[in-house]
Amino acid sequence: MNRHDGAPAPGGATPPAGAGQQPASSADHRNAAPYPGGTTPHRSAERQLADAAQLTGAATARRAVPLLRDVTLRDGLQLTGKVLPTEHKVEIVRRLLGLGVPELEIGSLARPDLVPPMANSLEVVAALSPEELRRCWLWVATPRHVEKAAAAGARNFQYCFSVSDAHNRANIGRATEDSVAAMPAAVELARAVGGRIQLCLATAFTCPFDGPVDPERVLAIAADPRTAGADDVVLADTLGQAHPGQVAALVAAVRARNPQRRIVFHGHDTWGLGVANSLAAAAAGADVVDGSLGGLGGCPFAPGASGNTSSEDLLFATRPDWFTPAVLGELVRMSEALLTELGEPNRSRTVEGARSKAQAFEWVIRG
User: Fold this and answer.
1) What are the chain's domains?
2) Which of the following is catalytic: 160, 200, 207, 299?
3) Which of 76, 186, 188, 359 is the most buried (most CB within 10 A)?
4) Does the active-site annotation cover 207?
5) pTM
6) For every residue of the chain, which 3-state class applies, written as one string?
């Protein structure tokens, strides 16, 4: 879900391609950060999640219909290897905002040599108005990223790192502890420009290198005083391997311990549970769910991950007031044109249904 930010690996060297892809038996990254359990829990993940939820109390849903954040222009594009022109990205931003999509993720400060589609993210930020940028988020991984993004006009910063130390080294080029230690400086820079900042926890459920992630480690990072300045907590099912019971339990536990923060669930649809997991997250207290047009996306630093949960599918499932058959038609046309341009498949079942011959159904696109 998150990308290499260009921070040097320990010792100053950038990790080579494939760095961090150690076999599961490798122990050099396990339990490296000072949080309970590391990434290899002794109990099953399901048992630990259930215990965590019981300890913190079951959270009730705070929002019957979660807000959608569309991540097409960041987590959607980054694996395609293709750079959309700045003006095209700006057009997509304005069309999505104009249709009523509440929030967008519009780019990242990942190294352009490693993630070429993100090369013009700051140009996109600079082209948008302050009013538009209030609904847009930018992926960052270091205080320096926040500083550069703020100078371009960004005010919403998604500060990301992995719960799994092995994945953080492969993706960010540093230990998880180093990312945690740097967060207060990132928070200070965001506050200096009147901005908001999220604590985005990739591999919150499973790691491609070390397997199941201990939920107590997630809870400990969210409770760490150095991450206390975050406005939101983002829980990312980076590999799309979580199931609704896991998602609900972890979201409930994080919600119970963080009543003042928004909770965001970022799911992938690798095993076909993206919508189910997002609905489970919302029922457990998540305020926002992430999706991308046509289910576009994937993680080059997370082997086995596939596309994001489809924005169209999430909207069709949750039916916010602003989402009408006419809006769906516009989103379908947008996603079809974009995915054709990128040479990517459309994974949305809602798009498939909207193009069906069930003409009596109001959500079917006619003509």
Assistant:
1) 67-323 (3.20.20.70)
2) 299
3) 76
4) no
5) 0.84
6) CCCCCCCCCCCCCCCCCCCCCCCCCCCCCCCCCCCCCCCCCCCCHHHHHHHHHHHHCCCCCCCCCCEEEECHHHHHCCCCCCCCCHHHHHHHHHHHHHHCCCEEEEEECCCCCCCHHHCCHHHHHHHCCHHHHCCEEEEECCHHHHHHHHHHCCCEEEEEEECCHHHHHHHCCCCHHHHHHHHHHHHHHHHHCCCEEEEEEECCCEECCCEECCHHHHHHHHHCHHHCCCCEEEEECCCCCCCHHHHHHHHHHHHHHCCCCEEEEECECCCCCHHHHHHHHHHCCCCEEEEEHHHCCCCCCCCCCCCECEHHHHHHHHCCCCCCHHHHHHHHHHHHHHHHHHCCCCCCHHHHHHCCCCCCCCCCCCC
